[in-house]
Design a protein that fits this description.
By secondary structure, the chain is an alpha/beta fold. It is built from twelve helices and 19 strands. Strands 1, 11, 12, 13, 14, 15, 16, 17, 18 and 19 form a ten-stranded mixed beta sheet that branches. Strands 2, 3, 4, 5, 6, 7, 8, 9 and 10 form a nine-stranded parallel beta sheet that branches. Helix 10 (about 340-350) crosses helix 11 (about 355-360). Bound molecules: pyridoxal-5'-phosphate.
């Protein structure tokens, strides 16, 4: 009852529908990427729902994210995608988290910890084919593959790489990366080792490059119904799972010439009705939307005026605009016939949908709708 009126509403049916659409499109197992609080949708509830739908594997960036999932009772296989440090290996092993191994040195650290704990490590070898981020270079991965497949303390479950330009269907980079990846994988065959699960495709790969699907795909953003790039092909029927909604907390008339907000950056040229909405950049809603964002009130687009504050911002309804205290304000999502998409917000804030989603922080309560009824 005392909860703030601002909330993120996550439609679990949309999430499930997106997973189903991706599966139908690719026909191979899916590693659902749930890093960064499941792209702002809430790590644990999203993972529980995906697990209930039988997702083959989950992927997170950091050890802590994997631990949070295990603590919440998630039993699905979890790969930690990020680079690891030696001191983290014991925890990874104790909590049954699959480890990314990207160099001989890391392999030795994992082997040593696995032997010490008497627990075999499940690893995925990370090959760099064009990101220069983490991963052994595809042109020098032979020794790592040989050592890993020969290791008594490691089971090589996967081999993977990451695409730099897959959100652009016209980029020649993806074909180059795919060729390098195949070359790296050929080393398993050359030394007579069994081929592990090969995975390469992020959302861009899923949408644009069927050759990259291989044995498993790793979609992140499209699982949440958002395209990796506004120009990406919408050839898979996905829909956004997240809405961001608040309520009018204050309403007043601002007289002509009276400025609104910090820095006095905006003032109306005639008397106008202005409402205050209780969410700000302290919640992860971008301050870059100052004087350029839009929200929906009574199904109409209305401009954000003045600078966005940490906890609230103001919206101009115009001289005739109607609104009442506690009326819903939609920041992301649909109201009436109008929709504000994550892509819209990102474009106005000068960033990408990924950043808009992942910066929505813990201060905003998340509400889950949809699946509990259908399950
Ligand atoms: C984040 C990430 C993904 C998912 O990327 P999307 O563009 O969100 O689909 C896949 N693989 C790795 C290694 C990642 O870090």
């Amino acid at each position: 009852m005392f909860q703030r009126p601002t909330r993120i509403v996550v439609d679990l049916d949309a999430l499930g529908g997106n997973l189903r659409a991706i599966r139908q499109h690719v026909g191979v197992p899916v590693m659902a990427i749930v890093k960064a609080n499941a792209y702002g949708h809430g790590l644990v509830p999203v993972a529980h729902h995906l697990q209930a739908l039988g997702v083959e594997q989950l992927g997170v960036a950091f050890v802590e994210e994997g631990l949070a999932l295990r603590r919440a009772g998630i039993t699905a296989p979890i790969l930690v995608l990020g680079g690891i440090l030696g001191r983290q290996v014991a925890q990874l092993l104790q909590h049954d988290l699959e480890i990314t191994v990207s160099s001989l040195d890391k392999l030795r650290r994992v082997e040593a910890a696995a032997e010490r704990l008497g627990r075999k490590a499940v690893i995925h070898l990370k090959v760099d084919t064009g990101m220069e981020r983490i991963g052994v270079h595809s042109y020098s991965c032979g020794p790592l593959i040989e050592a890993a497949t020969a290791s008594t303390w490691c089971e090589v479950k996967g081999v993977y790489s990451h695409l730099a330009c897959a959100d652009d269907p016209a980029s020649p980079m993806t074909a180059l990366q795919l060729a390098r990846f195949h070359e790296a994988c050929a080393h398993f065959t050359r030394i007579g080792a069994p081929m592990p699960i090969r995975h390469l495709a992020n959302s861009g790969g899923v949408l644009h490059f069927p050759d990259t699907w291989l044995d498993m795909v790793r979609p992140g953003i499209m699982l949440y119904g958002v395209l990796p790039d506004p120009e990406a092909q919408r050839n898979v029927p996905i829909r956004p799972a997240l809405s961001l909604v608040s309520q009018v907390v204050y309403l007043k008339i601002v007289q002509a010439g009276h400025s609104v907000g910090y820095g006095a950056t905006w003032a109306p040229s005639r008397d106008t009705r202005v409402v205050t909405v209780p969410i700000g950049y302290g919640d992860g809603y971008p301050r870059a939307l100052s004087n350029c964002g839009e929200v929906l009130i009574h199904g109409q687009r209305r401009p954000i005026v003045g600078r966005l504050c940490m906890d609230q911002f103001m919206v101009d309804l115009g001289p005739e605009g109607q609104a009442h205290i506690e009326d819903d304000v939609v920041l992301i999502g649909r109201q009436g016939d109008e929709t504000i998409t994550i892509e819209d917000v990102a474009a106005r804030a000068g960033t990408i949908g990924y950043e808009i989603l992942t910066r929505l922080n813990e201060r905003v309560p998340r509400e889950y709708v949809g699946a509990s009824q259908s399950r």
